[in-house]
Amino acid sequence: FSLDLLPSKNGKELTNYFLRQVVDVLLHYIKKTFDVKSKILDFHHPHQLLEGLDGFSLELPDHPESLEQLLVDCTDTLKYGVKTGHPRFFNQLSSGLDMIGLAGEWLTATANTNMFTYEIAPVFTVMETIVLKKMYEIIGWKETEADGLFSPAIGGSISNLYGILVARYKQYPEIKTKGMTALPHIVLFVSEQGHYSVKKAAAILGIGTDNVIEVKCDERGRMIPAELEKNIAQAKRKGQTPFFVSTTAGTTVYGAFDPLCDIADICEKHKLWMHVDAAWGGGLLLSRSHSYKLRGIERANSVTWNPHKLMGAPLQCSAILIQEKDLLEACNQMRAGYLFQPDKLYNVEFDTGDKTIQCGQHIEFFLFWVMYSSSGTYGFEAQINKHMELAKYFYKVLKERDNFKLVFDAEPEFTNVCFWYLPPRLKHIPKGFERDQELQKIAPKIKALMIEEGSAMISYQPCGDKVNFFRMVFSNPATTQTDVDYLIEEIERLGKDL
């Protein structure tokens, strides 16, 4: 059946009909996504999807489905999913639906080429170097001395893995040929509020999670430099060899920024690789009002930066940036003769595939390039400043209401605003174990009711000794103050009788 859609098989009319119908499906979905009166999702439990819904079956057939049924299936796939571009979707750090970025993703899917060599991706490979140079410049690095790549379809977690991988190779290049037996007992450091992907990377790379040392944070979730210094000294006394420090610019839960300058001083003193996980907060570098929060990032050896978060690019779009030319290639290259021949007719420096840990490489960056072309630095700046203003507004509104309690009394450092909702009956229970046990149940229950109604979506979690609280984040360009006010009213409506 799929061969009938190939123009070369005399299927031009059928092909045009099918693709136009698919575009109609997508346009209808986009229209519903931005309509605040529409549901964020039509929720069903997993067993319901597995059993089938109103003619929508996930089972794979032995015989081809009709064209009409395929179009219905495409419609239903979107119908029963979550509209992450909806103005009232606040559940993840990556949200929104950028039309220019979406068009960029369509274009790369249509091109259907691979990023490993210039010969099959001539425009894209050169274009990626332009995007990366811009990112080096924004960080404060010299473009002639830096290197980087966009990570394969997983995002910041793989970028963080690259940071550890390259740092280990830099210190112990023999790891590439001799393996773990060539290493001393190495350890690395991350804040207790750092992303879990650092531990996962340590497990994948054979370092082991026990050799990831978590550094204490202050009350706002920022790494304490004195604690890092103490942890390094303790590790050395135990005969361990520190080699890597992962700092965070915008933690997942609290939105905290580690003091990068102070940590850079410690890393230079002990000759440790300094990595900045700016997956969430990297976009602030484009804001003249807020970029100071990342002061010191220019001293990092490597940086993770996800444009698909604060900058609103479609998933996935994540870069690993290294402040040393050729290190990525030295660490990862295997010189596959069928791909990376040195005697090609063009400049083989653009055959960048040997810098990566995978072979096949999707075009991750183009949607960001086309967004940057349409917005420019100042367009991104305005969008990011709007997110920060919404967070400040949300904080001020909550602070004035006695049925909400903020996790932190001070203004938010980023777009994360963490808070509890207190139903009327809980306000009369004294602070202590009993109230905490009841408060622990409130956020999950309200979220469940929201999902069932499809009215809004916001995340919750415990953190340390703090019971479940809501975490509001702003990264969706479609969100307005009206949506913020709606969320507060919705929480009160669903929670007042709990």
Automatic annotation (TrEMBL):
<dbReference type="GO" id="GO:0030170">
    <property type="term" value="F:pyridoxal phosphate binding"/>
</dbReference>
<protein>
    <recommendedName>
        <fullName>Glutamate decarboxylase 1</fullName>
    </recommendedName>
</protein>
<dbReference type="InterPro" id="IPR015424">
    <property type="entry name" value="PyrdxlP-dep_Trfase"/>
</dbReference>
<dbReference type="InterPro" id="IPR002129">
    <property type="entry name" value="PyrdxlP-dep_de-COase"/>
</dbReference>
<dbReference type="InterPro" id="IPR015421">
    <property type="entry name" value="PyrdxlP-dep_Trfase_major"/>
</dbReference>
<dbReference type="Pfam" id="PF00282">
    <property type="entry name" value="Pyridoxal_deC"/>
</dbReference>
<keyword id="KW-0210">Decarboxylase</keyword>
<keyword id="KW-0663">Pyridoxal phosphate</keyword>
<dbReference type="GO" id="GO:0005737">
    <property type="term" value="C:cytoplasm"/>
</dbReference>
<dbReference type="GO" id="GO:0009449">
    <property type="term" value="P:gamma-aminobutyric acid biosynthetic process"/>
</dbReference>
<dbReference type="GO" id="GO:0048786">
    <property type="term" value="C:presynaptic active zone"/>
</dbReference>
<dbReference type="GO" id="GO:0004351">
    <property type="term" value="F:glutamate decarboxylase activity"/>
</dbReference>
<comment type="similarity">
    <text>Belongs to the group II decarboxylase family.</text>
</comment>
<comment type="subunit">
    <text>Homodimer.</text>
</comment>
<feature type="modified residue" description="N6-(pyridoxal phosphate)lysine">
    <location>
        <position position="309"/>
    </location>
</feature>
<keyword id="KW-0456">Lyase</keyword>
